[in-house]
Amino acid sequence: MCLSHLLTFLVDDFFSPLMYQDISVMRFVGVNASDINYSAGRYDPSVKTPFDVGFEGVGEVVALGLSASARYTVGQTVAYMSPGSFAEYTVVPASIATPVPSATPEYLTLLVSGTTAYICLKELGGLKEGKKVLVTAAAGGTGQFAVQLAKKAGCHVIGTCSSDEKSAFLKSVGCDHPINYNTEHVGTVLKREYPGGVDVVYESVGGAMFDLAVDALATKGRLIVIGFISGYQTPTGLSPVNAGTLPAKLLRKSASIQGFFLNHYLSEYRASMDHLVKMCTSGDLVCQVDLGDLSTEGRFTGLESVFRAVDYMYMGKNTGKIVVELPHPVNSKL
C-alpha cells in the first residue's frame, strides 16, 4: 500500500503521458471504512502491493491538458472520487471531477458519504412522511446525511451513536430520537418506544447491531445494508450474525433486506453530487467534518496522519466525516 506523491490530471476517458488533461494539488482527502476493505484485497483481489489507496479528494487545478481546458481553468477547485486519492497530486479524469465553490473539507464529505446516503435512500428507501427510519452509526460520515435526508422527507428519525456529545450533534441535525448505545440498550429502547417496529433501517455496523435492526423491523419493513464496519478489521471482514433464523423473521413480517454499493449506481452519481453541492452551498445540508482536533496527537495533517485517522475511525471517535488536511508541498515544482 502506498501513500503517493502523484500528479493530478483531469483527463477525459484515458490518460496519455503526452497528452494529459489536468493537474490538481490536493487540499483534503477523505477517510472511509472501505479503505480497510480495499487494502485487504476484498474489493479487487487481483490488486497486489504496492498500490495506491484512498477514494476521494478536493483541491485546486494547477495545470490543464487540451480537452480539459474547455471545461476547467487553472486555480479552479474540484472534488473527485477516484482510487489512489491519498496523494498530494493525482490524476483525475475530467469526466469524474465535480466543480465546487471552494477547497473546503465540507464539499469532500459529499463525494462518498453524502452520495451513498442520497442515492441509497432515494432508490431503495421508499421514504414517505411519517415513516420511522433507524440510522445506525448515525453521527458518522454517511449516517449524518441519512439522518438529515430522512428528516427532510418527513420521517421520524432514530439514530444510534456512542456518546452524549454525538447525541447532541444528532439532535442538532434533526434526529428525533438519538440512542447512545453505551448508556442504553438499543434493542430494549426500540421495543419500548417503537413496539410496531421501524419502516426503514440504514445499516452500516453489522454484527450484533444488524441483528437488533432485523428484530426491530416493522411489517413490510426494509433494511438496507451499506456496510458492516464492526467486522472490517477481522480476517474475514465480517462479524457473525444470526443468519439461521433470518428467513423466518423476514417471512413473518414480509420484511426485506437489500444491499447498496455505490459503484453499482454510478449512473445516478453526477446528478446526485450536483444536487448535494447545491444543498451544502445554500446551507440546507450540514456537512460535519472531523479533522481529528480532539484526537490524542491532534489534527490529521499530511499523508503520514492517514494511519492515525483510520484508527480514530475504528475506535468510533469521530463525529461526522474524517478528513485529512494536506499542506501545500513546499518543494513543489508545479
Automatic annotation (TrEMBL):
<feature type="domain" description="Enoyl reductase (ER)">
    <location>
        <begin position="5"/>
        <end position="324"/>
    </location>
</feature>
<dbReference type="Pfam" id="PF08240">
    <property type="entry name" value="ADH_N"/>
</dbReference>
<dbReference type="InterPro" id="IPR002364">
    <property type="entry name" value="Quin_OxRdtase/zeta-crystal_CS"/>
</dbReference>
<dbReference type="GO" id="GO:0047522">
    <property type="term" value="F:15-oxoprostaglandin 13-reductase [NAD(P)+] activity"/>
</dbReference>
<dbReference type="InterPro" id="IPR020843">
    <property type="entry name" value="ER"/>
</dbReference>
<dbReference type="Pfam" id="PF00107">
    <property type="entry name" value="ADH_zinc_N"/>
</dbReference>
<dbReference type="InterPro" id="IPR051397">
    <property type="entry name" value="Zn-ADH-like_protein"/>
</dbReference>
<dbReference type="InterPro" id="IPR013149">
    <property type="entry name" value="ADH-like_C"/>
</dbReference>
<keyword id="KW-0521">NADP</keyword>
<dbReference type="InterPro" id="IPR013154">
    <property type="entry name" value="ADH-like_N"/>
</dbReference>
<dbReference type="GO" id="GO:0008270">
    <property type="term" value="F:zinc ion binding"/>
</dbReference>
<dbReference type="InterPro" id="IPR036291">
    <property type="entry name" value="NAD(P)-bd_dom_sf"/>
</dbReference>
<dbReference type="GO" id="GO:0005739">
    <property type="term" value="C:mitochondrion"/>
</dbReference>
<keyword id="KW-0560">Oxidoreductase</keyword>
<comment type="similarity">
    <text>Belongs to the zinc-containing alcohol dehydrogenase family. Quinone oxidoreductase subfamily.</text>
</comment>
<dbReference type="InterPro" id="IPR011032">
    <property type="entry name" value="GroES-like_sf"/>
</dbReference>
<protein>
    <recommendedName>
        <fullName>15-oxoprostaglandin 13-reductase</fullName>
        <ecNumber>1.3.1.48</ecNumber>
    </recommendedName>
</protein>
